[in-house]
Amino acid sequence: QAQLVESGGGLVQPGGSLKLSCAASPSIKYIYVMAWYRQAPGQQRELVALMNNSGSAKYADAVKGRFTISRDNAQKTVDLQMNNLQPEDTAVYYCNVGVSHYGDDHDYWGQGTQVTVSS
Prior knowledge:
- Strands 2, 4, 5, 6, 9, 10 and 11 form a seven-stranded mixed beta sheet that branches. A four-stranded antiparallel beta sheet has the order 1-3-8-7, with no helix packed on it.
- Helix content is about 0%, strand content about 55%.
- The chain has strands at about 5, 10, 20-25, 30-40, 45-50, 55-60, 65-70, 75-80, 90-100, 105-110, 115.
- It contains no helices and eleven strands.
- By secondary structure, it is mainly beta.
């Protein structure tokens, strides 16, 4: 069964760090991009960071310099290291994987993991 399994969310104080991890099941093939999104209460889901197969990364302006995305293509995993977390980073974080194979493009979503930044 094709799925993404996330881990690593939790409660952290402002200025603290968390690392999110996401693993794609072996049945997910032809991955071309792996990404993290987040959705705060009452807000739209937004892109946090993504990394393509060549290792090129893109970040939302709000997290540049604080968050780092990394992936292991062989293991089909993607991590998000989050440093200097702030209350505005509080959200449900979702792993996203895009696949493409001869014009069949679609993506997968994880179940989401809660990140709460509060003192």
